[in-house]
Amino acid sequence: MSNQLMGKKILFITSNTGIERDELIKPLEALKAQGAQVTFGSSDGGAVQTFVQDTEKDRVVESQTALAGLKASEFDALVIPGGTVNADTLRLDENALRLVKAFADAGKVIAAICHGPWVLINAGVIRGKTLTSYASVKLDLENAGAAGWVDAELKQCKANGWTLITSRTPKDIPAFNEAIVAALKVA
User: Fold this and answer.
1) Which of 11, 32, 109, 121 makes a 20 to 30 Å CA pair with 185?
2) Mean pLDDT on 130-153
3) Annotated catalytic residue: which of 21, 115, 138, 168?
């Protein structure tokens, strides 16, 4: 285990179903392996159903807490995994939107992969940001005021006083994880 992120606190947020398994599990395990203290919160707390490619139910993972009581001030970074149903559900969750806005307002790192940037749209923090996502989310991001969308495994944007790290799909997870680690090492 590396201690590159010792003392850093990272919050993962999801709904309770529809999460793309690898976009939750792989970053969570990678950041823990770097010494970060990771908290996994879901809309209702408790059991979370993951999927593979949005269609195949996979494992159930236990979240540690519900989103309702969480505060951005207690964490250094926020990670939003993808999964179409997850992101679509999470972007209507008032606690998730409150947390995203608070992280952005505090100038903290936010990382979102796949459909995760949908949550950023509803939280009202996407304007002026250049990012990537799953291809079908591009038009939604542009219509919501994103400065631009790129088709790349990773895009990091520091506009508006906070760092946004985005990736497209599970195959981009290694670059996504590395960028989160790098951003938190300097934060």
Assistant:
1) 121
2) 98
3) 115
Residue 69 confidence (pLDDT): 92
Distances (CA, A) of 120 to 98, 141, 166: 11, 9, 11
Answer whether 179's CB lies under 8 Å from 111's CB.
yes
Q: How far apart are the C-alpha atoms of 1 and 4, rounded to whole Å?
A: 9
Average pLDDT over the chain reads 96
Task: Select which of 114, 131, 146, 165 is catalytic.
Answer: 114
Provide the pLDDT for residue 13: 98
- Is 114 in the active site? yes
Active-site annotation holds for 157: no
CB 16 within 8 A of CB 44: yes
3-state helix, strand, coil in the chain (%, to 5): 40, 30, 35
The tokens for 104 are 């952005």
CA distance 107 to 25: 26
